[in-house]
Specification:
This protein is α+β, with helices and mostly antiparallel strands. Helix content is 37%, strand content 22%. It has 7 helices and 11 strands. A 7-stranded mixed sheet has the order 2-3-4-5-9-10-11, sandwiched between helices. A two-stranded antiparallel ribbon has the order 1-6. Strand 9, helix 7 and strand 10 form a beta-alpha-beta unit. Helix 2 runs antiparallel to helix 4. The radius of gyration is 19 Å and the shape is globular. It starts with a strand and ends in an 18-residue tail after the last strand.
């Protein structure tokens, strides 16, 4: 059964002005890495990182990191990608501009595959106990959280994670608040199945089928995987609509 232990990271807080600064994809990636390195010296890592304590720590971990990976994924030689992340309550989490003239611009709404309260309790157990099983039951007694590990079938767990990621995409895509200028980015935060290629291939097959049949009113669907932070994506084509491809658009995977 999979077990994870403590890793060295921390996050006392990030001011909104710093968080929302406009950066290129590469500047954002450097800033994310620098922020992690700076925070590594904190003696409050477990509480801040795993329990998401501190100003803008939760959106930094759950939104900025996958957005940063998406921006790098879309960057090509000679064409800048500009990113601005937001920490307020607007209906999207970031805005991307492709090309220095900003000719292609779209919004990004991030959603994770965390399942409350289990995901929260599992992170709390890791923070407070130093180790936790990724499967099994959890119990809370006051501030104490304990877990009882359980072996799982990897094929069944793979299918469960695929279904969970698709349900997150569908839940966001079918809301009227989004339009064809907004991409949905699903961050598979609880995805530990390795190797990833079978899960990724099946998830993309099912996601493509969903997009083709449901024709959701969104710009694109993306997936980011916690294990290696790779990116997959599908553009949403509509009858009679011509979309930019390859050099600037969301069709380039």
């Amino acid at each position: 059964m999979p077990i994870i232990g403590r890793c060295m990271d921390a996050s006392p807080g990030i001011a909104r002005e710093e968080y929302e600064r406009r950066r290129t994809a590469f500047e954002l990636a450097v800033w994310v890495n620098e922020k992690f390195r700076m925070l590594e010296t904190s003696d409050q890592f477990e509480r801040n990182y795993f329990e998401r304590i501190g100003e803008n720590v939760k959106p930094f971990i759950e939104e900025v990191i996958p957005v940063s990976r998406l921006a790098l994924h879309l960057a090509i030689p000679g064409k800048d990608v500009f990113v601005r992340c937001f920490s307020d309550n607007r209906p999207y989490d970031a805005e991307l501009e492709l090309g220095s003239d900003g000719e292609t611009r779209f919004r990004v709404e991030v959603t994770t595959t965390e399942e409350s309260p289990d995901s929260t309790m599992r992170r709390q157990a890791l923070s407070r106990n130093g180790i936790v099983s990724l499967t099994g039951t959890l119990r809370r007694e006051g501030r104490s959280v304990s877990d009882e590990p359980r072996a799982v079938d990897v094929a069944e767990e793979t299918d469960r994670q695929i279904q969970l990621a698709l349900s997150r995409l569908q839940r966001k895509a079918e809301r009227a608040r989004y339009g064809n200028d907004t991409a949905i980015l699903v961050y598979l935060t609880d995805c530990w199945v390795w190797p990833l290629h079978d899960l990724r291939a099946e998830l993309m097959r099912r996601a493509d089928h969903y997009v083709e049949t449901a024709q959701p009113n969104i710009y694109a669907a993306y997936f980011c995987y916690f294990l290696d932070h790779s990116i997959d994506g599908i553009s949403v084509r509509r009858p009679g609509q011509v979309q930019r491809t390859d050099q600037r658009g969301a069709d380039r995977w």
